[in-house]
Amino acid sequence: MKTKDLDLSHVLSSKPKGGVMYFLGQRALVIDARALGFLRKELINNLGLSVARNMLTRLGYAHGWLTADNLSSEYPELLEDPTCGPALHMLQGMVNAREFRANPIDDPVHNMTCIWEDSYEAEQHLIHIGISGEPVCWTLTGYVSGYISRMLGRETYCIEDKCRGKGDALCHIESRTREDWGNLIDDHLPFFKEETIDGVLKDVTARLRRSERRLSRFKRLFNGDVHPAGIIASSEAMRQVLDIARRAAKVDSSVIISGESGVGKELIARFIHDESARAGRPFVAVNCGAVTETLLESEFFGHAKGSFTGADSDRTGLFEAANGGTILLDEIGEMPPGMQMKLLRVLQEKAVRRVGENRSRPVDAKVIAATNRDLD
Ligand SMILES: [Zn+2]
């Protein structure tokens, strides 16, 4: 058998009345492309674009890998022919492959390029989701990756750079082994891996749990006027304070709370943290008045081992400890002006430099400053 002679009669078999159908000797289905389009839409709407892309890429990969594997049983001589993959892809009705170019299989740099016309996937994406900013032929590129990986017995990936689904006239793909892609494959690789789904689902579960916790706090707040942080909101003035705090929580900028000692500034800060998207991440509270001036910098920014007498190990500063969360700087008015300038720089640059180190480390912490003084 030669690839150019291959047609549906060689690969597809079924009883005239159907019931069971085979492609290359394995059970196959005829399914309306629009049904896959609906599935795609459901996946994107319910799980987000990354998970949907991940699942569909892996579905395509399994399909391509199995197709090559079935070919090796039915027509083993064709597995060596690089043009057979595109031919089978076409016989499965998924895409029209044109201008196929490939280096011979025994070439150490086996790569191939191809133009795709009539991609079923770009078509369905445009119908159900609309035009995309990125290529969308995820099952098809997954298929090529799986097929060639099985064919060569080497990890191989196919990347699409032009796509009908993002407004190009035709789709264009290139496939190379992992080594030949080098760093260029890094952004695409997660979509081929199982962990991506796990990671995103864990993240979704964690966010769901946080939302549930917040919901139950809200319920308690409305039922009993008592916030779990210990705030009793029975007076109109206190309700207004909480309302402002809640709004401050929704904006990811720094907040300053002023008020006399003992009015519960830390509770309000904690409330803002709990109501913000940073809830569940660290909340670090520090009383600036209680830290000795000589230790302030190391306390806030950390230090490198040996940077001063007594610094016998590396130390993480409070800003780094609050990374992703919130840091409360209580009694900020007690802080020396020089140190206040340094804090300002951290807020502007979103990075800290440990004492005794030359490099900056990025930090992302919401800063809440509290004071009992009138600050100018
Ligand atoms: Zn495409």
Summarize the structure.
The chain is of the alpha+beta class and 376 residues long.
What oligomeric state is this? single chain
Helicity range: 40-55%
What is the overall pLDDT average?
A: 88
Ligands bound here?
zinc ion
Number of distinct beta strands? 15
Q: Quick one: CATH superfamily of the largest domain? A: Trafficking protein particle complex subunit 3
Beta-strand percent range: 15-25%
Structural domain tally: 2
| Spatial strand order of the main sheet | 4-5-7-6
Give a description of the structure:
The chain is α+β, with helices and mostly antiparallel strands. The protein has helices at 8-11, 33-74, 84-91, 120-128, 138-152, 178-181, 194-224, 236-250, 265-275, 293-301, 318-321, 337-349; strands at 12-14, 21-23, 26-27, 96-102, 112-117, 156-162, 171-177, 255-258, 283-287, 302-303, 315-316, 326-330, 351-352, 361-362, 366-371. It has 2 domains: 31-192, Trafficking protein particle complex subunit 3 (Muramoyl-pentapeptide Carboxypeptidase, domain 2); 225-371, P-loop containing nucleotide triphosphate hydrolases (Rossmann fold, 3-Layer(aba) Sandwich). The chain is 44% helix and 17% strand. The strands form 5 sheets. The chain has a 4-stranded antiparallel β-sheet with strand order 4-5-7-6. A hairpin with a 6-residue loop joins strand 1 and strand 2 (21-23). Helix 2 packs parallel to helix 5 (138-152), helix 2 runs antiparallel to helix 7 (194-224) and helix 8 crosses helix 9. The longest helix has 42 residues, at 33-74. It starts with 7 loop residues before the first helix and ends in a 5-residue tail after the last strand. The relative contact order is 0.08. The model has no long low-confidence stretch (mean pLDDT 88). The structure holds zinc ion. Zinc ion binds at residues 119, 122, 135-137, 160, 163-165, 171.
